[in-house]
Amino acid sequence: MKQILLIGSVWIFISCCSIVPLMAQSPVQIRGTIIEKSTGESLPGVTILEKGTSNGTVTDMDGKYSIQVSSPEASLLISFIGFSTLDIPVMSRSIIDLEMEENLDDLEEVVVIGYQTIKKKDLTGAAAVVKTENSNKILAASVGETLQGLAPGVSVRTGGAPGQGPQVEIRGVASFINSNPLYVIDGMIADANPTLNTNDIETIQILKDASAAAIYGSRAANGVIIITTKQGAKGAARVTASAKYGVEQLPQGYDMMNNVDFAEMQRRQFTNSGLTPPSSVSTQFDPSINTDWYKEGTRMGNSQDYNVTLSGGAENSSYLISGSFFKNKGVLIGTDFERVAFRINTRNKKGRVTFGENMVFTNSVSRSPGTGNSFYDMPQMLPVIPVQGDRFISNANPDGWGKGTTDAVTYAWNPVAVNAINSLRSNFAKLVGNAYVDVDLTEGLVYRFNAGAELSFDHNKSMRRAGEWHFNQPAAPTNIIENRGLFSSFLLEHTLNFNKTIDKHVFNGVVGHSQQRTKMEILSAGSTDLQSFDGIYLNTVSSATGEAIADGFIPQQYIISGYLGRVNYTYADKYLLTLTGRYDSDSRFGEGNRSRFFPSIAGAWRIGDESFFESNVISDLKLRASYGELGIVTVGSWDYIGFLNSNPRAIFGPDQAAYVGATQARLANPNLGWERRMSQNFGFDAGFFEDSFTISAEYYNSLSKDVLVNLPIAWYLGNLGGEPAVNAASIRNTGIEVEATYRNRKNEFKWDVSGNFTTIRNRVVDIGNLGEGVNYIQTGITRTQLGRSLGEWYVLQTDGLFQSQEEVDNYRNGDGQVIQPFARPGDVRFVDINGDGEINQEDRTFQGSPWPTLQTGAQFNATYKNFSFNMQWIGVFGHQIMNGVRRELDSYQNTNFRNDLNPWSPNNTNTSDPRIGVSVGDPGLIDNARLESDRWLEDGSYVRLRNLEIGYNFLPTIMQRWNVQNARIFISGQNLLTFTKYSGLDPDVTGNGILERGFDNGNWPASRIYSVGFQLEF
Amino acid sequence: MKKLAKYILMASVVGVLSCDPNLDITNPNQPTVEVFWQNATDAEQGVNAIYSTFARGGFSRWMPMLYITRSDEGYSGSPWSDLANAFGGFIQPDYNFGPVIDVWRDCYIGIFRANQVLDNVPDIEMNQDLKNRLLGEAYFLRAYYYYNLALLWGNVPLMLETSKPTDLPPTSSQAEVWAQIESDLALAISGLPVRYGSNSDLGRATKGAANALLAKVLMQQGKNLEAEQPLQWLVTGEGASVYNLVPNYRDNFVIDTENNIESVFEWQFTINPTEVTDDDVATPNHNYGTSISQFLAPPGIGWSDAEARTWIINEFLQEQTTTGDRDLRLAASLLFSNTDERGPDFTMVYGQTFTQRYGPENPRAWFRKFLNDHWRNEEGYRSPNNYRFIRYADVLLMYAEVLNENGKTAEAYPLVDRVRQRAGLAPLSQTRPGLNKTQFLEQLKHERLLELMGEGHRWADLVRWGDVGPGLAQRDPGFNNFQVGRHEFLPIPQRDLDINKSLSQNPGW
């Protein structure tokens, strides 16, 4: 109840201050035309507002407007996106014609900062505005992917597979568990996964520091991406249609040997080891079998993206309806993704009350085999194995899919068979949206009730048909499993926005309450023993005749409830102060740890507007600083309690029946809490030469505390089902972000160029108590150690090859012990770091970091007459990638060989490839292929031409004949060029989660996309 | 003032709507630790969960394979060279090598489950007899998991209470681990019944099983005098009326004659055709069987990741049965060209002749006891074939060994005779009477090999007899890599050493 009283009294207080007596005055009718200053052309769609009221209108197609204002002393605010806003006193005029000037100054842009919009010039925190004119040029299934390289501090690594989302990180990673930013779509906190149509997006803002993001408090520590969708504008109905079609081509695959070369190399391999070569490469070698597995498993993909939008509005209402279809046929056989989206955004005003809603319905379907990774298997699969063959036919493999055999041993999967036998179809039907009521209580005071919902009806259907796709495959029945999930998230918010000017003091801000309930339910059913007739499989659960499978559970269910508030104070338009706070409670923590306050403060000084600051060069300068605390939840719904797991089964009795067992499988920590992030930001925004050149720079220093460490539980504890987390670690991310733009609009050849760069220095400051003397977390071959970055490569160091037995024998430690007694000439020499005379895990050291030292992006836009040109580059530098696929290939065992393989032999010593042989009983060869070695680390730096687009705008005069107002065609190429030394398919590696980022285990590479498209507006 | 009133009204509406929701959400999927451990059902389910560990992959698959391949009776010729080297090659550069670690993990998972029972069940108000029995089962199972840890790793941390994430125990020496096992087994023996009243409890640990395991533990430490007592219980005491040898040797390895009179302790498996994982806590729909048959079965059927050393075939051929036939235990133990005495054209390997599959000359041999070739022509990850961990024949031979060690060789003869005669061989008292203690032990080594080959006891036998070492390389070239003072034990997982600095690595690693 305390909170109620508090809110009530704040409300009353604010309300009392704001009530201004209305005086009777005579209304005045004004009309006029608005044109663009440089071209003299009329400007439709310009907003004209009576200052201090919500009374407004927009210009028609000819730039004409008319408005009734309350008095002859009123002022008009005239605004249009991309143009400088004008503030014109009416001064008893009835006709006011105006010229508007294109605004070269970004700072006039309006920025959505959560529950409020403010002018960019009034920003005190660090918020990046992504130009959708750039992001929309990328043909991609998800918003995240289109952001690559466009905003400083935002790292995007693309997923590659159809419908797969990218890895987006804002200002580094400060958590071991979750680095995903929070997405807010039109005020609804929801997932912006590939189900959102990127063409619906009007603006994207990225809140990076504590001040900007603090209004989202306990969820904002990884940054916030605010997406606002398009709205209708006043005027006659407008229809826009666009279509885009692109073909996708994989980069060059691994260059592997053909049948003859492979057979020769494998004969040599076996002969070297004193073994008889397998018959498949010797006595029974069949020259007619020469399978190019890369060719068999891949294809030319394509993407199609179609959109139609209908929008318009009247005096007090607007609407936008859009429909879209996106389809991506993947470059791997059997993979595709398609999405249909339908959006309705409307706004209606009646008196003091505005009703609005933004709603999208999307249905997306992705298909894949659902198992395996062809990018891992294709290079390993042997060329002497056919895709299909009669000799492979058996009961278990009726279609005779080719696979490894006792005389052509490989355990790699046949990608064609995997695809033919297994299928997974995932369908997400989603409804995301919000509806709100705004009430203009009095001047400068608006109440909003906002209700949002995200509903996702998920359906996955997997089938395993008859057949085998790898050597020695265990028998398993055919089966079908369908699962249905319902994800629901409901948001309820009450907010009060205020805005008050007293002389030079300007106050604005928001207070409110927000509550969100989220739940996921899953029900699944299945059965074994599919029926098929003439090769056609029946595909419902009940059509299968074997054992039934049923499962149902609620993996997550939680509530977040919080109070939020922000005050922006500006004095004399030069001194700015922002105070933001949010008090959040979250059901995912134990009672004592459920609530927390997340405050922040920021200030800015528009020093460029000071009278003493006179410069012909610098046209604008603002200094900013902020400090605050944010949180993030990295736990499941009930992780703070220990649970009994009732899944174990004991088998007893003559009938061998299964009896239920119960045990606590997973250890729990009752004291779980938020991960918190203290973040400082210092920045400036400057404009030069009348803002034709602008630059923004930020320095940030963010320290995360109480970071959950999934304590790598020792195996002797017997823990299962995930390691219990403890809020113990601390990670610091510091860096510099710079973004600069130069615009040249003076000539007919108009162009602008923007560039940004980001540095991230990621350091573990505290790792928690992991035991005496342990200051690191080991994850596979990476180690996260105090004072270093997350997940640096911790491996053995190699030192070339032994060239002779003498070198092996003489490679000794201080005590004269032979360090690699098993090694033979041509084997890899490892460095005995600790000098104990043998190579073991004690000799591992840090051999590189997966973290780029520099990330850059650059965009160039130009227009000349009717032509437009867009080019985007990205560059990522200074990190190491672990090439896991290459490791498999260069182990030489049960795999095809690289075409350029040049193994060491006594007669061929000038090579870096070790000797070749069969490693069973040959520890030297096994050591050569050790995973934990710097042999597989490669420089991951790359520069990529992300996008290149050339467009042509048809002359309106030509098009008007068909009632077309605007028509544009374009061609573009995505990922056309990549400069890198990395030998894998693509240096843009997503990796294995946060602690093994940069581990390429058959990463899906980014395709080259060549596309054409058009846009029409009626 | 009207307006003001309206605002106040609205403000309160807002306030009411915003009132903090109840943030206590009950997990609808699982009971919490606080509400569990209330009654006999909870106690019984807690114990069942310990048994459930047997079907986990590390325990049911890798552990028997590890015992087989480390000894001189088998090796791994797996193309997965890390596996081939670690299993039987005594080469394990990666101390965290998955298949080896899985054994370690599953043993400790079982111990964690047993500790939960031992910590919580004593406080439950329930029938005292049932409580004693359940605690006895938990003590037995904990002892059994430590028995395997002691054999394979020797010096390991002793976890005796429900684990906490912060536990950093020191290494206990193998002697300390043996002592703990002895103490657990003493409690198990006093709590466990000789037989279970209900048929549905068939397969649970019994007093006999605990006595047999205790005997193994004592013998392994050379405590032969102490080992007499539990074996006496089994052979001449109360156990004599419970156990016997089954007439047909092969019945110990086929699915229709599980839990027979010879079975002292047996891992229970059954098929769950819809299973999706070996992880028994991930879903109720996990593997209730063992995948070992898929890993032992010959190529074309299974992975063939472990196979037999063929010198053993000659051991079987040394002696014929009283009827002049080949020792019938050979065909029960090995799949090879002459499993059928008539030769490779008659030996059936999963529905095809040996010749059809591998040609007539192939010299390889595969362990047959865990396989399902007696009832189907394929393998998979879901074998229902129970593993008879302690057979009464083993107990008889153990008792014979103990008696011989204690100078009672004459008393040992009839025990060996029972085992030999079941296999159709003449009694040892006829064929080789009057052996002295050393000769008798040598003979016992032969008898144990033939009776128990491929059942995972050979490693413990070799260690107990002091025979483990490079001297075995004649039979098993893997022992060429065996370093005395090092390879007796496996390396402690690096991960556990990394986390817990009070643990120490085994000597030589």
Please explain how this structure is put together.
- The complex is a heterodimer of chains A (1018) and B (509).
- Chain A contains twelve helices and 52 strands.
- In chain A, the strands form eleven sheets. Chain A has a 22-stranded antiparallel β-barrel. Chain A has a five-stranded mixed beta sheet with strand order 10-15-16-13-14. Chain A has a four-stranded antiparallel beta sheet with strand order 3-2-5-6, with no helix packed on it.
- Chain A is globular and about 105 Å long.
- By secondary structure, chain B is mainly α.
- Helices cover 45% and strands 5% of the residues of chain B.
- Chain B has helices at 2-18, 40-52, 57-70, 81-86, 98-120, 128-152, 174-191, 207-220, 224-235, 292-296, 311-317, 328-333, 354-358, 392-405, 409-422, 428-431, 437-452, 458-465, 494-499; strands at residues 74-75, 156-157, 171-172, 263-267, 307-308, 334-335, 348-349, 352-353, 366-367, 387-391.
- A two-stranded antiparallel sheet of chain B has the order 1-5. Chain B has a two-stranded antiparallel ribbon with strand order 2-3.
- In chain B, a hairpin with a 2-residue loop joins β7 and β8.
- In chain B, α2 runs parallel beside α6.
- Classes of the chains: A mainly beta (1018), B mainly alpha (509).
- Chains A and B meet through α1, β22, β24, β25 and β28 of A and α1, α2, α4, α5 and β2 of B.
Main pleated sheet of chain A: 22 strands, antiparallel, barrel
Q: How would you write the strand order of the largest sheet of chain B?
A: 1-5
Structural Rg of chain A: 32 Å
Beta-strand content bin of chain B: 5-15%
Query: How many DSSP E strands of chain B?
Result: 10
User: In angstroms, what separates the terminal alpha carbons of chain A?
Assistant: 55 Å
**Chain pair sharing the greatest interface:** A-B, 115 and 119 residues
Distance between the termini of chain B: 87 Å
Q: Enumerate how many helices of chain B there are, as a single number.
A: 19
Uncertain segments of chain A: 1-24
Broad structural category of chain A: mainly beta
Rounded to an integer in angstroms, the radius of gyration calculated over CA atoms of chain B is 26 Å
Please report which band the strand proportion of chain A falls in: under 5%, 5-15%, 15-25%, 25-35%, 35-45% or over 45%: over 45%
Task: Briefly note the structural class of the backbone of chain B.
Answer: mainly alpha
Unreliable stretches of chain B (pLDDT < 50, length at least 5) are: none
Rough outline of chain B: globular
Query: Portion of residues in helices of chain B?
Result: 40-55%
Q: Quick one: overall form of chain A? A: globular
- The beta-strand count of chain A equals 52
Q: How would you name the oligomeric state of the polypeptide chains in this document? A: heterodimer
- The H-and-E topology of chain B, N to C, reads as HHHEHHHEEHHHEHEHHEEEHEEHHHHHH
